From TrEMBL:
Domain of life: Bacteria
Lineage: Bacteria, Pseudomonadati, Bacteroidota, Flavobacteriia, Flavobacteriales
Name of the protein this chain belongs to: Alpha/beta hydrolase
Database matches in InterPro entries: AB_hydrolase_1 (IPR000073), AB_hydrolase_fold (IPR029058), AB_hydrolase_sf (IPR050266)
Gene3D superfamilies (UniProt xref): alpha/beta hydrolase
Keywords: Hydrolase
Domain (AB hydrolase-1): residue spans on this chain: 21-116, 181-238
Parts of the chain that traverse the membrane: none
Length: 254
């Protein structure tokens, strides 16, 4: 996917297909390639897939928070000239999508969240990767998935290099605090955007009861489970994820 990135103004993004725009929001450690399955599937179904690089580590520390990232997404939608969009977010990306839906409902057609933070305070991890401890970081990366083999050396190396980058570490901790501060529990009952919740039954980062709570609090939500699946369903079971998401889009007339 790297080779296909477009750069326009302050935005760098991947784009494929034509049709209703689905903007994908990656998580804290999530590369754009985590969504390869979605990016390959939906353009053939009449959707335009757009994956912007979120400025998680490049924005001023004062703008390193969920609310500022949601505004960045709104500005990107305006920049691209879209009227209303569907947002899909994993982990922190789901939280940004939820906050965007709260602040800018007029921009939203629908929302899909998977392994999202926003309710559960430990969603950012319970102890931050210790610098220089590769084995610890490997174990943390493996815990994200039901099948630890999904945490390839490439993924572990990426997390390891981030944990050893002082600025990135400070920004990661800043975001984690912001995620706790921007808890969505009181907002969700007032949010009436159609929402699809797809969750791994074996998610250790945001456990299944978090998905149940989202479903209970969001008035127009549908909840779908993927078995033998951890925190990043779209990576671990891309085919099943795509089928569930597509069926929901059709059901919701989106």
């Amino acid at each position: 996917m790297k080779k296909d990135l477009k750069k326009e103004g302050r935005y760098t993004y991947f784009e494929a297909g034509e049709g209703t725009p689905i903007i994908i929001l990656h998580g804290l450690m999530g590369g754009l390639s985590n969504f390869d399955g979605v990016a390959n599937y939906f353009p053939e179904k009449g959707y335009k897939i757009i994956i912007p690089e979120l400025p998680i580590y490049t924005q001023n520390i004062l703008k390193t928070n969920v609310k500022a990232f949601a505004k960045y997404v709104k500005d990107f939608i305006t920049f691209k000239g879209y009227d209303r969009v569907i947002l899909l977010g994993n982990s922190l990306g789901g939280h940004i999508g939820l906050y965007h839906a709260k602040m800018y409902p007029e921009k939203m057609l629908g929302l899909i969240i998977t392994g999202s933070s926003g309710l559960y305070e430990s969603a950012m991890g319970d102890g931050y990767p210790r610098r220089g401890d590769y084995d610890y970081i490997q174990k943390k990366a493996e815990d994200v998935f039901y099948d630890p083999k999904v945490a390839t050396k490439e993924i572990v190396d990426e997390v390891y290099s981030m944990a050893n980058d002082r600025i990135k570490l400070i920004k990661t901790l800043t975001i984690a605090k912001s995620a706790i501060r921007h808890n969505m529990a009181k907002d969700l009952p007032k949010m009436h955007i159609p929402t699809c919740i797809i969750w791994g039954k074996n998610d250790k980062v945001t456990p299944p009861d978090v998905a149940e709570e989202f479903h209970k609090l969001l008035p127009h939500s549908s909840l779908y489970w993927i078995d033998k699946c951890g925190h990043a369903a779209m990576m671990e079971h891309p085919d099943e994820f795509n089928e569930l998401m597509y069926a929901w889009l059709k059901k919701s007339d989106l």
